Amino acid sequence: MTLKEILNNLEMIEGTLDDAFYSLPEYNANEDSKSYVDSARNELYNLKDSLERAVLDGVELSINYGDVVKELG
User: Fold this and answer.
1) Helices (H), 1-73
2) Residues 44, 50, 56, 58: is their CA dihedral positive or negative?
3) Residues with Cβ < 8 Å from 55, sequence gap 6 or more?
């Protein structure tokens, strides 16, 4: 998996978190849930921003999960 593929996946997660945040009704009982979802969105935005900067700087990364599993096993 490359950095660009990871960014694409993060964009899909971002859309899902945005949908979750905006679909929660405006009730006091949902304030904690909205806070947790908003915090996750913020963390995602920061991660995505860092990865976008790395891509613009020409950093290349490729992960082969088969090798990772072999090393962990």
Assistant:
1) 3-23, 31-56, 65-72
2) negative
3) 3, 4, 7
Backbone angles phi, psi at 61, to 5 degrees: -145, 135
Query: Model's pTM, two decimal places?
Result: 0.73
Question: pLDDT tens, position by position, for the chain (73 residues)?
Answer: 888 888 999 999 999 999 999 998 888 888 999 999 999 999 999 999 999 998 889 888 777 777 655 655 5
Q: Specify whether the CB–CB gap between 7 and 52 falls below 8 A.
A: yes
d(CA 14, CA 11): 5
- What count of other Cβ atoms lies within 10 Å of the Cβ of residue 29? 8
